[in-house]
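Limitations
The structure tokens in this dataset are predictions for the assembled complex, not deposited experimental models. Users should treat interface geometry with appropriate caution, especially where small molecules or nucleic acid strands are included. An illustrative entry is reproduced here so readers can see what is and is not provided.
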Amino acid sequence: MLTPAPLNRKRLLNTRGWTFLIVLAAIAVGVPYLNATGALPDYAVSLIGKYLCFALLAIALDLLWGYCGILSLGHGAFFALGGYAMGMHLMREIGDRGVYANPDLPDFMVFLNWQELPWFWWGFDLFWFAAVMALFVPGLLAFVFGWFAFRSRVTGVYLSIITQAMTYALMLAFFRNEMGFGGNNGLTDFKDVLGFDLQSQDTRIGLMVLSTLAVALGFLICRAVVISKAGKVIVGIRDSESRMRFLGYRVEGYKLFVFVLSAMLAGLAGALYTPQVGIINPGEFSPANSIEIVIWVAIGGRGTLVGAAIGAVLIAAAKTLLTGLYPEAWLFVLGGIFVFVTIFMPRGVLGAWDSMIDEMWHTRGMDPRERRLAA
Amino acid sequence: MSLLTLDGVTRSFDGFKAINGLSFAIEPGELRAVIGPNGAGKTTMMDIVTGKTRPDGGSVRFDGHDMTKTDEAGSARLGIGRKFQKPTVFETHTVEDNLVLSLKDDRSVFGTLFSKTDHAARVADLLALIRLEDRRLDFAADLSHGQKQWLEIGMLLAQDPKLLLVDEPAAGMTDEETERTATLLRDLAGDHAIVVVEHDMEFVRQLDCKVTVLHQGSVLAEGALDAVSANEKVIEVYLGR
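Predicted assembly:
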């Protein structure tokens, strides 16, 4: 029998949360150290930085899908928009060091015979403006899209399909040269950011460390939402939307809030991704990319935040390895992993881990409810 | 003044008049049973009262508000609680969290995001009332059918509604549970107006209250159960010619 405890208030950081933050701190400190000693090659630092951006993107999607039940098959679009916003700034930073040495226009615009900078490029020469846009543009798109979709009560698979259509439409648009975002080639040949040379290893290390901070920040924000009363409302919406309405909650508002927050975090991930990989192109909008994010979250464990990050890193690392070794095999392996996890670990890697721990508590004759209190 | 007044309400679906000139009134604190054969419009009536469905015509007034212009969340905020036939509790939430979500409090996104309200005392009271004290930290999914029904009743009480709409509360309950439910509803009446939609005549008898019989979307008869069951028209509708 459990003694009546004060109301079950979850803590911002439980054991798992602390572990996650400590691992992130270890990466932020350990990777530069190993790189300095020569144990870790230079390219690996940016690769890890890239995985961290994916981890943040996965956490953002998990908040939306795992907790609110909204399966976005277009989350890559928010990531890519954040990436483009940062890419635009990096293009402006090139200045007259481009092939055409035009101080006012990026190379691709000179190539297209454009005479002046289009209005939507104004302001991107300022870093702060680009940084704000990397969050604002994905947030605005999510707000407008969500406003109409949620108010019309579009849910489930229909919503998933229109998010997919959204990213596909954006991909086609960004492929067009006339759009003014570099078309097919996207934005690349970046030189520096805030005066730091993007080719230098120190800058790469700095960006990687910044990425660990962004993951930590994103995680803490999502965790704070999840443990708040709003987090309970959001899970309630996932499990029974109409019941939530009859309790007096305006479901649309909550969905919109989570959708916009998630899109902004995805935009942040994209903004950190572009300088680390050195290119952003319309391929990032491709529906396949967005589906891959969903697979990361499903494999890591929906509704766990940490699991989403683990799934993203595991799958992205496996992709790097396998596409190097057997490029043709990758999609089959990915499909295979997805099927395996869906059948044998329906709650993902972290969910399977939880079940194992619960099982251990049972065999020791302890009440799993005590564990739940600490979770 | 009546708490809820329906006057000449109509609503059709694809030409079928689900509600056809429906008029009745519920007084504050009243217990009322609404019966009627399948398709009589009982569910549509509740959908209209809670703002889920908009009527084509007629007026619905609750506590001075026009209910034809609100939505589900709006009706809940004005003080209408609704219990569905199938118990719908939040399965992945604990019993306690189910109650916390239902308690009267700020329902806005930012209100809940930064909510610091301590509900411990009210939750404890409710748990005692619905006899689920020792299941406080269990997931609602792990409750029995009857316990889920009780949890849902607890959630409705947490809302502290002025009007409770209850859809077939006795469905799937054992005789003993049915009796307990009837007692509970009788006890709750007075503090809350309650409209019970029911098929089970035995249960309606236990409620011992005024009965409204619906048929083809309008009121066929109204009065005490004995008077209503002696009514020629009612017998005809229920038993056929």
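Some entries come with short summary sentences. For this one: The mean pLDDT of chain B is 90.
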